[in-house]
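Aspartate carbamoyltransferase regulatory chain
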Amino acid sequence: MEREVERELKIQKIKNGTVIDHLPAGSGLTVLHILGIDKGYKNAVSIAINVPSKRWGMKDVVKVEDRILRPEETDKLSLIAPEATINIIRDYKVSGKNKVTIPNDITGVLKCGNPSCITNKREPITPVFSVEKNKPIVLRCKFCERIMERDSIEAQL
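Structure:
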């Protein structure tokens, strides 16, 4: 009889910062890009890709030391990882835990895919999208009514 070996994921704890858990498998690098971490971030960053998960099958996890997400970063994150959990770490302990939520309106995060949209002209108008559907994500431009789906959304992030 074979003996089952217990396996543990070993990623170093962070003293202060943010842990983003329950990311869709394979999205961890996109999260780093959204956060601007792929451009020479100076503090510790850990990323686990395709980690086994009882609930999801596979998931990604990102740990970022000395960084708290801004609201616009959370809005961007919600577009690719609507089930993610954001854990705030203080002195090696979880001091806050929040589920990512997709807001009803997405403001100033994406550009409209319609080149004729007023938001893509020389007018100083910030793009605003209403969320038409959460799974899969579907957005509608509030100005020209153009629909944007996951592929065109992810291409802009």
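The longest strand covers residues 45-53.
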